[in-house]
Amino acid sequence: MNCTLKIGAIALALAVIPNAWSAGNKGPSEAQRQFQQERAYCMSGKSQQDRATCLTEANNAYAEARRGALNNSGGGANLAQNAVERCKAQPAADRDACVQRVTGAGNTEGSVKGGGVLRETETQVK
After folding, report:
1. Rounded to two decimals, what is the model's pTM?
2. 3-class SS at 120?
3. Is 29 part of any domain?
4. Which residue would you say has higher pLDDT here, 41 or 26?
């Protein structure tokens, strides 16, 4: 099977899944709405991934949300806590500077879409 047929088969399967899951429900759940938005984004070609990968990841996130394993609640507080948690992987001497950078201290430039975000802080050493 060539790549085009595989992508078509994946897209068809992913298009049918939300309808099957919502059978009997009065309306789509928040997870279904999110999945449909992500799927539309994948299909638009604006994603930084190839279409098949994007659709697979959208489907996986939807499956996790349905199992209750995907928690996006907490908004910015949850994101900030995750950022601080990632700093724990840094050597002890660098952790404080890492936390400062991810919580907004210093200068930030660039974008994820542009290829990366550069965060910079200055630390005086005596």
Report:
1. 0.40
2. strand
3. yes
4. 41
